[in-house]
Amino acid sequence: MAKQIIFTDSAPAAVGPYSQAVVAPSGKTVYLSGQIGLEPSTGELVSENFEAQVRQSFANLEAVIKAAGGEMSNIVRLGLFLTDLSKFASANAIMAELVPQPFPARSTIGVSSLPKGAQFEVEAIIVI
Fold first, then answer.
1. Nearest 5°: phi and psi at 77?
2. What sign does the dihedral 67-32-58-27 (CA atoms) show?
3. CATH classification at residue 52
């Protein structure tokens, strides 16, 4: 899938692994619900460790993307939710490892709490 990345000097540059905007080609649009760091077999958080939760959240997201017939490169929009924005750089680094370039559009939001005491959640829109 060839995504067109939009960039302008008239808006601030990205402060992480994401694009200012993405134009997706025509195709099937899939809206994925948020994923937290739950181990699929137990339904419990994989760990109390933030980085482990981020990695498991992205693994869960990838499993749903594959079930929809897509792959991580099909992501055009991500939403990240963190209960501690001081861990923003860590989430960025892990995302940069797991999501191929060109990076999707993205927002990151600080929240007071997430289900099951999770520290991180990710949601996505893909076009396949």
1. -150, 130
2. positive
3. 3.30.1330.40
The pLDDT value recorded for residue 39 is 97
**Bridging pattern class, strands 29-36 and 120-127:** antiparallel
- Integer angstrom CA distances of residue 51 from 36, 66, 73, 76: 12, 23, 22, 23
Which domain does 60 fall in, by range? 4-8+25-127
Residue 15 lies in a domain: no
Domain count, the chain: 1
Task: Determine if the peptide bond prior to 104 is cis (ω within 30°).
Answer: no
Give the model's pLDDT for residue 63: 96
- Residue reference for tokens 């994925």: 32
Mean pLDDT, consecutive 10-residue segments, the chain of 128 residues? 82 81 85 96 97 98 96 96 98 97 95 98 96
